[in-house]
Amino acid sequence: MSIAGGLENALLDARRKRCGCVQLFVANQRQWRHPPLTEEQIEVFHRTRQSARLDPVIAHSSYLINPAAPDADIYKRGVAALADEYDRCGRLGIDYLVFHPGSHKGSGLQKGILRVVEAIKKVLDKHDNPCRLLVETTAGQGDSVGCRFEHLAEILGRVKSPDRLGVCLDTCHVFAAGYELRTKGGCKQTFKIFDDIVGCENLKVIHANDTKTDFNSGVDRHEHIGKGKLGREAFRNLLADRRLRKLPFILETPKGKSPGGRDYDMLNLAMLRRLAR
Ligand SMILES: [Zn+2]
What we know:
Bound molecules: zinc ion
Order of helices and strands: HEHEHEHEHEHHEEEHHEH
Radius of gyration: 18 Å
Number of domains: 1
Low-confidence stretches: none
CATH class: Alpha Beta
Shape: globular
Structural class: alpha/beta
Distance between the termini: 25 Å
Strand content: 5-15%
CATH topology: TIM Barrel
């Protein structure tokens, strides 16, 4: 949800659309520097959250941040920005901060993974707060880290902070990375692999997105639920899994209104709820 006009507007919009949980940015995602949060902003956010009864409240980090970057300046700037966002989340009482593990830019996967591990440790060391960092699965575009469950397992294993780190799984990204979800058997197999390698107990959030791109394409293009290559069946499969249906599902589908004038968020929510039944 958009934070235009104030962070609390994301919560109010979510409540208006009858969401149970919400994801927002905690800073302008296209800028590196932000003025610090004021006491008043923090208080309004806490008050609005209480009345909106949203649980959990999730933040998504800026797309500018690349914690796997080989360039020292870009890396340093990214870690500082992630630490700042994490501090903001702590002050705002946000439950999870989702971030992309980024791209190693051709410098080698293993080096990229180690830089992500260092970045996470720096952020967690700098600010002691109860917000949990979540590494998001990626589609495998370019030299991205995080498109194989093994990458995530290695990051979690090396950071060794199971209470402060977890995983966010994006349905569009894992499908683009070559994990099947469209059939009952395929979906079951994907989560068996996930459980064996990463552990389902580390999975805290689902980004529920359909996709415009093909299986194993490596390309990340979100689509409305049921309208893309994943289709309704994939989400029915996900929501039939008792472990998964308890998790917060976040839509990152296109915004705006349908040709019939209906709000796309409402349509996608209604579709997911229908498939959950
Ligand atoms: Zn996502």
